[in-house]
């Protein structure tokens, strides 16, 4: 049985991945610093996550694992009142430190990168070889970690970077700051979708269970190329304009209205929809090619989830979970709000280390 370690295992993706892998016969452990542990949409799956900051991981904590899936990081973008360098530099440093230890110990390293590093796409369909234009601290950080992994790679260390499209779909620790989850959440809780733009920007989208599938296939792939293997994860059919996504959601949640924030500013009193809070609502617009993963990653074949199928499923799960406006607006479902709260309340430092009230393991 393969032993897998997931860092950042109590986040949006990790909370689903550990269960997914465990159900498929992998022995899965997680480390997390628990910034988002306690806000749950529905009960979390039982898993073997331990409280451990990725900065404090030592060789001893890695011994015995076959694969490390590196999720730990700060994914909200922008960082609001926090200083991007204080937030992102440590995440680059610990990704490199953990990868270096994996290299020494002969452990496969799989990194959660992001299609957002393409930024403003100049080509019609962006491939792994296209030039990248990271627009934000988050995207730049992903690129820098990829560069570090590229320089660490050699004949005995062949890391994999999966550039995920923007993920959507249910998780006990769902995020409502990503575009499809946010718009579907609004539709279910308020019977109304409010767009903060004209909706013309293109985005690649990826269902959370297809993230899990790509990781399972990467774990099983005996890749020994001696260099960093970079693959976009998503599907061409899920490259959609935000307005198209809104229409798909309208079909999945009958009776839901579509409105534009510039015509109705009073609809966003809490500022949740404005750019500051929402990862999916900025100037990025790009379409991505997903041919390479289909040709390279054994067993992946293609994504199983279209946006349409995923939205119907998500809307059903949100209804089942009894999503109300009050639950939809809970701080813990929004990365930036939660981190700003922990920082401004004195629980964490400006480089996101627990100062007081450290959660129990
Ligand atoms: N969700 C997406 O759309 C998406 C897309 C592309 C890439 N990714 C990447 O995938 C990874 C997982 O994403 P997610 O959506 O689950 O993010 P998330 O923010 O929900 O979860 C990240 C987890 O990492 C933990 N963490 C943060 N700093 C840590 C540290 N120093 N030590 C230990 N744990 C720490 C947090 O407590 C949190 O539980 C991230 O690296 C993210 O950038 C996500």
**What pattern of helices and strands is seen along the backbone?**
EHEEHEHEHEEHEEHEEHEHHHH
Strand order of the largest sheet: 3-2-1-4-5-6-10
Number of beta-strand segments: 12
Q: What's the tally of helices?
A: 11
Oligomer: single chain
* Helix residue percentage: 25-40%
Name the beta content range. Answer: 15-25%
- Rg, alpha carbons: 19 Å
Largest sheet: 7 strands, parallel
Secondary structure category: alpha/beta
Bound molecules: nicotinamide-adenine-dinucleotide
Q: Distance between termini? A: 26 Å
Low-confidence spans: pLDDT under 50, at least 5 residues? 276-282
Tell me what the structure shows.
There is one protein chain. It is globular and about 55 Å long. Strand 4 (67-70), helix 3 and strand 5 (108-114) form a beta-alpha-beta unit. The protein is built from eleven helices and twelve strands. It starts with a strand and ends in a 17-residue tail after the last helix. 34% of the residues lie in helices and 16% in strands. It has helices at 14-23, 59-62, 84-105, 137-152, 179-190, 208-220, 242-252, 291-296, 307-320, 325-328, 335-344, and strands at residues 3-7, 27-32, 48-51, 67-70, 108-114, 160-164, 166-168, 192-195, 202-207, 229-233, 239-241, 257-260. The strands form three sheets. A seven-stranded parallel beta sheet has the order 3-2-1-4-5-6-10, with helices on both faces. The model is unreliable at 276-282 (pLDDT under 50). With 361 residues, it is α/β, with parallel strands linked by helices. Nicotinamide-adenine-dinucleotide (NAD) binds at residues 7-8, 10-14, 31-36, 53-55, 71-75, 112, 114, 164, 166-167, 175, 178, 335. The site of nicotinamide-adenine-dinucleotide (NAD) has 29 residues, from strand 2, strand 5 and strand 7.
